[in-house]
Amino acid sequence: MFRRGNLKSEFRNDDKHVTAVAAAAFSIHSIEQAAAANLISRPQSMRRKNHSTLSERPTYGGDTSVKRSSFGEDGRRKEGSVPLRGSSDDISSKRTVPQTQGHQKQIGIPIQHNNKANAEAWEKAKLKKIQKRYEKIKSQILSWEREKKIHAKMHMEKKKNELEKRRIVTTQHYNNKIASIDKVAQGALTQLEDKRRKELSRATEKANKIRKTGKVPPAINCFCFSHL
């Protein structure tokens, strides 16, 4: 009778314990929903503090350890007490896991935003660096082009001046050559003309003597002309 009455009393105490745990789980779930709405706006330290506070399991009624130890004295009673003790742990674990997942999802939003901002900042800096490097190379190419064109023009002008001087010298030499030829030719023509006039004059004189005397002078087959 004592054992049977004691067993009923322990079952009633366990029912009260299960009811208290269920009420505590419902209360904690309500608190978590209210805290989740303000979790994003709170600092990281406050979120960790709230998370640790909500993870603590409250104790209701008397000393449950005494009840569990007294209830575990009998093997038959111990088999019925396993799901009761496990039920509070299961409720606590089920309560904690969704909170952690929700916490990670809430933290994932600013992390994704930061990653996107960092990627855009990196891309902007990289493109600016590439553009600056290619602008520098382009400036060097244009500078090289201008320098080579100036050098080529100066070289051309130098050659042109040299050719102009050479042309002048060549032209002068040609003119001198032509003048010398003209001088020699004109001298020869003048000399020839003088000899022609002299020959004509002598012939006229002989003709006049023949008219006067009637005698023909002997023929002279000598016609002298100096070589040019």
TrEMBL record:
Residues 115-217 form the Remorin C-terminal domain. Residues 94-104 have a biased composition (Polar residues). Keywords: Coiled coil. Residues 70-80 have a biased composition (Basic and acidic residues). Residues 127-166 form a coiled coil. Residues 42-114 are annotated as: Disordered. Belongs to the remorin family. PANTHER family: GB|AAD39278.1, OS02G0116800 PROTEIN. This is Remorin C-terminal domain-containing protein. It comes from Arachis hypogaea (Peanut).
